[in-house]
Amino acid sequence: MVETSSASMIIGVISDTHGLLRPEALAALAGSDRIIHAGDIGAPEILTRLAEIAPVTAARGNVDTAVWAKTVPQTEVTEAGGISIYVVHRREDLDLDPAAGGFAAVVCGHSHVPKAERVGGVLYFNPGSAGPRRFRLPVSVGKLVVRHGKVEAQIITLDVT
Questions:
Q1: Structural domains of the chain ordered from first start
Q2: Over the stretch 122-141, which tens digit does the pLDDT of each residue have?
């Protein structure tokens, strides 16, 4: 768990890279104070490259089965700007009540569908997929902006060919 007491933070959020880290994703995440990768990383180099931008918190996805991925936890908790964030690849694998646990946000991936919604006061955020395009879904990443103990989500659709 990483903690910071900053009143305002930008957290870059990425998921489902499947071994492909696009330059457009790196550009969108530049300037982040922290990065969360919500699984289906695909290769350890992805995390290394993201760590060149900002400290990384990551959860292992269902395709992360190689030996290197055993060091990546299935779930992770991080604190940023005075809030707690729970990270899990598949939302359906959430094994706790985030509101009761004091979490302001749950970050997940897996579906490749970007989505931000509040349920019971908790922000559930999926940045979509930043890796290989799947069907007609957008290629995207996201940002969480934390100010004064409140968190807001932004989905960033990447212009890729």
A1: 8-157 (3.60.21.10)
A2: 999 999 999 999 888 999 99
